[in-house]
Amino acid sequence: MAATDPLPGSASLARQARWLEAYRPGLRVAEQGTVVAVGDGIIWVRGLPSAAMDDLLALSEGSTALVFHLGRDLLGAILLKQSPALSAGTVAHVSGLRLSIAVGDGLLGRVIDPLGAPLDGLAPPRATARGAIDAPSPPIVARDFVNEALYTGSKIVDSMIPIGKGQRQLLIGDNGLGKTAFALDTVINQKGKGVYCVYVIVGQKRSSVVSVIETLRNAGALAHSTVLVAEASVLPGLKYLAPFAGCAVAEAWMRQGRDTLVVYDDLSTHARTYRELSLLLRRPPGREAYPGDIFYLHSRLLERSTHLNAAQGGGSMTALPIIETELGEIATYIPTNLISITDGQIYFEQRLFAAGFLPAIDVTKSVSRIGGNAQDPAVKREAGRLKLDYLQFLELEIFTRFGARLEASMEAKIQRGRMLRDILKQDRLTPWAIEAQFLWMVAFNDGLLDGVATEALPALLAALPARAAAGGLTLDTARERWIQVATAWIQEAKG
Ligand SMILES: Nc1ncnc2c1ncn2[C@@H]1O[C@H](COP(=O)(O)OP(=O)(O)OP(=O)(O)O)[C@@H](O)[C@H]1O
Ligand SMILES: [Mg+2]
């Protein structure tokens, strides 16, 4: 105790004396490897026979690398940190550590790199724990069905391609069609809903990274989000790690019983990085020069997204992986892999974008395999009718292109379809609450909107979200009450 201690620090001196007394000299064996080559973000090392895959190597001048390839004499490792002094001849040791990242609420509102270092110029995030970057996915017995809706705020998705908490929904399409915009809108729509979001950016240029962060900040969505960035110019090893690191951050919240959403923007770049690393490490290429285990890699990542059952805290991780296609081709290797791994896809179409239909989502090529079960029953009832009407209209519309004369009933259907298409158009950064969406669905299905002129529609729709909120109705309210509100809304706008 300090008060009775004659000499401050004598306790530690006594401890050292005891350690010295018990000390017996002996041989300690440590393996020491040597770097034989450095380049393109990878190193080759000789002399570490006991190193295993995914071991972290500590290099004597301060760099770190991850064991990625084991050969007979040499091992290949991907650099995660590279100091300028790294060269052939540098000494390497197996560090004995596994790769992990700081997790916890201290990461909210922060921008970090895949190793957890801050990129926003602030102090390192206050971490409550560390999460393994490569962790096994939850076993089947720990999982529950996807049974609660995750609202994106997008009219077209929440009605016809609904997503549930714990679902993995692919965003797929050519470049520049609004995939990132859609993912950002979804993150923004989680504001105030208790869903923590992780936005992972892989291999994008600085300007795109800044625009994502600014969009989230301006929308007040950074407070419930973490942005994890591996921009185009960083080491390929970091780009390879980024999705797993982001997943680990979301996973920690999920295990605390929270609902989380993670966006991987995008996995095409991730796959290309992995191909690059694999070819540099002389792994055999397979289809389209990708190594065969890219499928394993992406499925292992997405299997970590799930809805845990009540015994496990009931948390969930919804995943929105993004894939970029070329010329709309979804049958190439990486897209087909991801389509088979995920629970559905939202397809962005060039033709729609060019025609000014935004968001450019093609309902006929999009599917949500499990989200329907999670949709609120009232919404599901309305949306079911709507979707049928819309798909029928899209087929009918093809005939009108040939100038065929149609029956009056057909003509009416086409008119209704055109109106529906106009309603489904939505600017970015304008998410709609589910109550507002329900209101237009009821109004449309009951024919209350029939006869409204196309020019009058935008003003009518602009007034709707406020109207729905003021009504104070919930999805459990009787349909008649909703119809009353809808009628009043349309009357008011007309009058
Ligand atoms: N609903 C929308 N309303 C208006 N503009 C939109 C909408 N969705 C996307 N855009 C615009 O389309 C452009 C492309 O969007 P975005 O960058 O999200 O596409 P992307 O598919 O992520 O592209 P990339 O493949 O380059 O990452 C942006 O200028 C965006 O503002
Ligand atoms: Mg994008």
Features:
alpha/beta; 38% helix; 495 residues; Rossmann fold; 15 helices; elongated; binds magnesium ion; Lysin; 3 domains
What can you tell me about this protein's structure?
With about 500 residues, the chain is α/β, with parallel strands linked by helices. It has three domains: about 35-95, Elongation Factor Tu (Ef-tu), domain 3 (Beta Barrel), CATH 2.40.30.20; about 100-375, P-loop containing nucleotide triphosphate hydrolases (Rossmann fold); about 380-495, Up-down Bundle (Lysin), CATH 1.20.150. Helix content is about 40%, strand content about 20%. The chain has 15 helices and 16 strands. The protein has helices at about 10-20, 155-160, 180-190, 205-220, 235-255, 265-280, 295-300, 335-340, 350-355, 370-375, 375-400, 410-425, 435-445, 455-470, 480-495; strands at about 35-40, 40-45, 55-60, 65-70, 75-80, 90-95, 100-105, 110, 130, 170-175, 195-200, 225-230, 260-265, 315-325, 345-350, 365-370. The strands form three sheets. An eight-stranded mixed beta sheet has the order 8-12-11-13-14-10-15-16, sandwiched between helices. It has a six-stranded antiparallel beta barrel with strand order 1-2-5-4-3-6. Strand 3 (about 55-60) and strand 4 form a beta hairpin. The longest helix is centred in the last third of the chain and has 24 residues, at about 375-400. The mean pLDDT is about 95. It binds adenosine-5'-triphosphate (ATP) and magnesium ion. Magnesium ion binds next to helix 3. Magnesium ion (MG) binds near residues 179, 180 and 265.
